[in-house]
């Protein structure tokens, strides 16, 4: 039995491709609200739409972890 993440929120950095993308889809598939944080706005919008098309919840925050504030 796979764990569920209903009513939980996960933050995925680097979610626009590779392992981050896979993690985002996996968490969303288990009921998590997914927050995508990376520099690639276009890829994250695409992933958000994919998650939402499967009744998931996702949002995107433009983030560059290499820049100090």
TrEMBL record:
This is SDR family NAD(P)-dependent oxidoreductase. Keywords: Oxidoreductase. InterPro entries: NAD(P)-bd_dom_sf, SDR_fam. The lineage of its organism: Bacteria, Pseudomonadati, Bacteroidota, Cytophagia, Cytophagales. Belongs to the short-chain dehydrogenases/reductases (SDR) family. PANTHER family: DEHYDROGENASE/REDUCTASE SDR FAMILY MEMBER 7B, DEHYDROGENASE_REDUCTASE SDR FAMILY MEMBER 7B. The keyword Isomerase does not apply. It comes from Agaribacillus aureus. SUPFAM superfamilies: NAD(P)-binding Rossmann-fold domains.
